[in-house]
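During the first year of the project, the team set up a workflow for recording each protein of interest as an amino acid sequence followed immediately by a discrete structure-token representation. This format lets reviewers and collaborators read both layers of information side by side without switching files. As required by the reporting guidelines, we include two representative entries from the current panel. The first entry is reproduced here exactly as it appears in our internal archive.
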Amino acid sequence: MSEHHYLACDLGAESGRLMAGHLCDGRLRLEEIHRFPNQPVQEAESLRWDLDALQTAIEVGLHKAAQTGVDYQSISCDSWGVDYVLYDAQGQRMQPAFHYRDPRTARGVKTILNRMPWESIFAESGIQFMPLNALFQLGAEAPERLASAQTLLGVGDAFNHWLGGKPALEVSMASTFQLYHPMKRAWSEALVAAAGLRAEQLPELVPSGTITGTLSQGLMERTGLGAMKVVATCSHDTGAAVAAVPVSVDDSGSWAYLSSGTWSLMGVERAAPILSDGCRELNYTNEVGHGHSIRLLKNLSGMWLLQECRRAWEAEGEAYDYQALTEMAQKAEPWVSLIQPSHPRFLAPGGMPERIAAYCQETGQPVPASKGAMVRCLLESLALLYRQSLQDLETLTDQTIQTLHIVGGGSQNQLLNQWTADALQRTVVAGPVEATAVGNLMIQAIALGQVKDLHQARAMVARSFPTTTYLPLNASSGHAAWERFASLPADA
């Protein structure tokens, strides 16, 4: 069988990577070409993305890819959702590109909810309430700046455009903007108006797997790469990650996924959205995936809390890798203190250990006495948060979930995987780690006609990458902790 080669640029909230995928004999082999940090820029109270630095880093990666001598057939970028890039009348990026954790979003929420009630917003979009959603960010924009913009793109789509693709917004990314109607498969006129946008400012919507152009002549000359297709795969990284969940057709309806990274995105794959009052009240979201599938999920706090604690301790001169922190947690006493990881107080960066300590004190729990105790508090709380989400999903879908597939970087945390299996009393299957890049690459293969469909792609993923299965243990050990967790305040 002939071998096919693709490039995936996967941009995460902490780092980016350029990965090569080599498809041969029904198996995909990954090769990391370039990895680089993604550091937001703090200017006064504002938090922004440094897109110029990301562009430079991606171009370095493309030059490295050219040096491998491989004939790549296509490339695609994916990124986190909700953030957008504005373009002026000359087609140039407008600065700044705001970060979803920028404090302006609180102002945007008030503006949008004064224009349209929350019940109507959910009925139109099916997207959960999160202050960081693009709809609310747009509500915080200066009217003059927004009016002067010619169009807007998601971050992944913006880099696909820079690579040489036409300016288009892939639907998995569009759905995170909270401006898209999942039943009509089109922009919601009501939400677009509420955001302060004009219809002519909206980019073309394209489905996952659309070839949008070819690598630009300038990039070919600067990097040494040959001509290749630019593909809009799932521009939203979660959509790409879910495409790489290694399930078979026979598993339909019996599994859920957890895309584990800075965020934990836990949900099920469906044919149609759920726009019920119950879904809105539980604050679940209906994001679009490959093939217009619906990812019924909830955006939960993930490894963000641990990342922030690690960053704070490093700033104090105590640097630990994640393995060391996990080992410290394993030695700490179980079920001493718990938090609600998705509480709004934990959303902003900075001072995380102090905020966790304050939450424990305010809720009448012991303040974690060591770094190991703090990490154990975080990981146990995440496991119980996943249990809460599993119960919600089973209620909303009226289905019993047998297996949870954990994909992404967080799937490497063996301790959290086992604690999750224990908390859920379900089988947990961890892997692949690089699910987003794998999904990106497999959708490119589908777009180029080298893989038949998503079912075949997932079967290839299952053959290509190892997974680890965790069976539930200690059914009763966390029962009292669960009752305590369920009573903790989850809102400000």
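The second entry, processed by the same pipeline in the following quarter, appears below.
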Amino acid sequence: MLKKLPQVRGRYTENAPLARLTTIKVGGPADVMFEPVDLADLQVFLKGLPEDIPYIVIGEGSNLMLRDGGIRGVVIRMDKALNDVQVNGLEITAGAGATGGKVARAAREHSLKGAEFLCGIPGSVGGALKMNAGAYGHETVDILKEVQIVTQKGELQTLSPKALNFAYRHSELPKGALFVGATFKLEQGDKEEIRNRMREINKNRATSQPLNMPSSGSWFKNVMLEDGTKKHAWQVVSEAGCRGMRVGDAQVSVKHCNFFVNLGEATAKDMQTLTEHVEAQVLERLGVQLEREVRFVGED
């Protein structure tokens, strides 16, 4: 495949291991991994890539379940090239490869409030945009001014949030386009209050989530019941009796049952089977159809 790929300044790696790049430490290799050196390098890659070669982006590897057969085509990693965070007045511009935590810390240092919730979301800015990540009553779109994307043809565009149809854990990119950056609009605040809020969020995560074990973050989306009431996914999973359910080394966390954890040697097949068992039991016992928040990608 390398012979068919465009000449770039960045690095290509064949048969690249991916499990170590995910937070759950599961999954097969990529045919090729591409790490661009900058935005221009990524644009050259997309412009020159043959149409029959598929590609996806992997950021920090959270909310992602790579299947055991790995990824056909090219996996793009932006964490080294597109990770700058710049503050200008009440606005913060961040590359898609920067982490949400990095954005939150930059906001704190400049006494800007509104981005505190990002410190509690493991993942990249690109991932947060892709799924409109949220926590503690806030979503990414709430503080979003505009996004920068690169199209399938390598063209750089700036779009408003409205153009991407953001919804709960959802956004709509043009086919083949990639997020490369975002500008967030924040408010002036008190640095100590912001610091305390971030500490509170991190303390809550440590208390309620299995942070000491490999996981992908929230596994299922929260549920809207027929009577119009909302329920946290963990409540539904727990009420159906799935807390602690296990397949191989894949387990529904006892600490927080909307987290699936890798006890050591779990495979993607284990995770897939466990997911299906939980979905079936919740449907049978509660009549609720769960919707996955974690993305399953790759070949079986």
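For the second entry, the following points were noted during internal review. The helical segments are 39-48, 100-109, 125-131, 191-208, 233-239, 268-286. The chain has three domains: 2-76, 85-194, 211-297. Both points are flagged for discussion at the upcoming steering committee meeting.
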